[in-house]
Design brief:
The protein is an alpha/beta fold. Among the domains are: about 70 residues; about 90 residues, no CATH class. It is about 70% helix and about 10% strand. It has a 5-stranded mixed β-sheet, with helices on one face. Helix 9 links the parallel strand 4 and strand 5. Helix 3 packs across helix 5. The chain is rod-shaped, with a radius of gyration of 47 Å.
């Protein structure tokens, strides 16, 4: 009886085990299939990447063939030299930008002066005439320098002396613009001064001051001159605003000093006098009388008046 009852249970259990093993095999097969699919996809991706690499290589080879075909036109050494030159020029860019900014600022300052000071066509005409005179003076100075160089080659012994007296240091473009602005201010000051002179006819002065304030037209004096009994002395008399201009002008600096005779003075002051004649103006000086006799005073005064306009001071010179 017991054997009969246990037989179906054993059969059912074997059937269930068969199903279990089947499902296990099915799951395992499915996992393997997924792994194979992933491997296939990776292989396809690698194949695509290799195809792209091959395509890039083919394009590179095509370009290389083209370059090789133009080998006579493209010079590798020249190309490297151009690249090196470009690198050197790139290093100069910051310095050039700074110089450009200085020039831009100077130009803006010049334009500001032009717009503020030129109020009429007459002012503009006067300014243009003065600038033309400045151009003529510049050409004259250049011709003089050329003649001096030629003369120096013939006379080597006098070279150092002539160079010290005549040569001016080279100026940068920005310094030239600053000089032009200063000259423009001088012209404007002379213009105002001439208008003031018309209101005071009979002052006996035929030329405007070379240095005059651009707004008021007031005279800006170049030297303070002390007349002693047996000598006269030229001292700096220019305003602080003219200090840089005066200190950079050898013709102005060489006049400073003490003189026993008028001839000694004229030797030193001829250059600055000729410059004022070319500009159709005169430099003004203040005269201080420290002489004991009128004859000494008048004698030295005539020498000064040959090259300068004067203002007689009533007080003695105070150090």
């Amino acid at each position: 009886m017991d054997d009969q009852n246990s037989q179906p249970i054993v059969e059912v259990s074997l059937t269930e085990l068969a199903f279990i093993f089947f499902f296990i095999l099915l799951i395992f097969s499915s996992w393997k299939v997924n792994n194979l699919n992933e491997s296939i996809n990776e292989q396809k991706s690698e194949n695509n990447s290799l195809k792209n690499d091959i395509s890039n290589l083919e394009n590179t080879l095509d370009e290389a063939v083209k370059i090789e075909s133009f080998g006579s036109v493209i010079d590798p050494k020249a190309l490297i030299a151009d690249l090196a030159f470009s690198k050197e020029q790139a290093k100069k860019v910051p310095e050039l930008k700074k110089e450009n900014k200085k020039l831009t600022d100077s130009l803006a300052k010049y334009e500001s002066v032009m717009s503020d000071k030129l109020n009429s066509k007459a002012d503009f005409k006067v300014m243009m005439n003065r600038l033309n005179q400045l151009d003529e003076i510049t050409k004259l100075l250049e011709d003089t320098k050329k003649k001096e160089v030629s003369s120096n080659k013939k006379d080597a012994d006098g070279k150092a002396s002539v160079k010290n007296k005549t040569n001016q240091p080279d100026k940068t473009l920005s310094e030239e613009i600053e000089s032009l602005i200063q000259r423009q201010n001088d012209i404007l000051g002379q213009n105002v001064n001439l208008r003031n002179k018309l209101k005071k006819v009979g002052n006996g002065l035929d030329h405007p001051p070379c240095w005059a304030h651009p707004d008021t037209g007031e005279i800006e004096y170049l030297y303070d001159v002390i007349i002693n009994e047996e000598s006269l002395e030229f001292l700096p008399g220019w305003p602080q605003s003219r200090d840089a201009q005066a200190m950079n002008d050898n013709n102005i600096l060489m006049v400073l000093g003490q003189y026993k005779t008028n001839k000694d003075l004229w030797k030193k002051s001829t250059a600055i006098y000729q410059g004022s004649v070319a500009l159709k103006c005169r430099h003004f000086v203040r005269i201080y009388d420290h002489a004991r006799s009128k004859n000494s005073f008048k004698s030295y005064l005539l020498g000064i008046e040959s090259h300068f306009y004067k203002l007689l001071m009533r007080s003695e010179y105070a150090q």
